[in-house]
Amino acid sequence: MTTPTPETLLSMLAELDRIRSLLVELMERAAPGLLPAPPDDSGDGERSAYELLLGARRAVFGHPAAARSLHDLLVAEGRRYASTPAGAQLRDRLIASEGVDRLRRIWETVSLNVLDGPAPPSGVPDAWAELLADAVTAHGLDDTVLARLRPEGFA
Predict the structure, then answer these.
(1) 3-class state of residue 100 by DSSP
(2) What is the pLDDT of residue 155?
(3) Chain centroid to CA 73: how far?
């Protein structure tokens, strides 16, 4: 077996990124609730918030291993800081905060909690894989979706 050239490796990465994008699109099509309609006749602030939250959801679903790593890093750092006296004080104030409860609900809505639970090291969270499997099996794959996933010239 010959060693692939850097150009071949870059082409493979580009193809994997294309497939990843198509899988996210498939999930959004198979589960319309993942891509809600934008707010009608809303102000710029509401539209901006919608786009920000939708972008965060797509980032979580489109890059689950990276999102899981970042999530785990932030959780570990929060726990480390909470173990200090200053961190414990802040944690106690935050626990009682309505704003933190609202942020938790926003995060759960955006991420659908797919970053929680087990995941292999540097791997895709199990909940994300289950969501993708449900989207594919519940609605099936039609030929138009498969055709977009198939590289040119591939039978």
Answers:
(1) helix
(2) 45
(3) 16
Q: Which residues of the chain have pLDDT under 70?
A: 32, 42, 118-122, 131-155
Nearest to 113 by CA among 151, 79, 67: 67
Rounded-to-integer distance, Cα 42 and Cα 44, Å: 7
Which tokens hold the place of 110? 């955006």
The type of residue at 84 is T
CB under 8 A, 24+ apart: contacts of 117-124: 119/68, 122/65, 122/69, 123/65, 123/68, 124/64, 124/65, 124/68
Angstrom distances, CA of residue 61 to CA of 32, 56, 91, 108: 14, 9, 29, 13
Question: What pLDDT is stored for residue 134 in this prediction?
Answer: 66
Place of tokens 């934008």: 38
Whose CA is closest to 20, among 63, 71, 56, 57?
A: 63
The CA-based angle 143-147-152, given to 5 degrees, is 160
CA distance 10 to 15: 9
Contact 126, 17 (CB under 8 A): no
Q: Is 42 left (phi over 0), alpha (psi -120 to 50) or beta?
A: beta
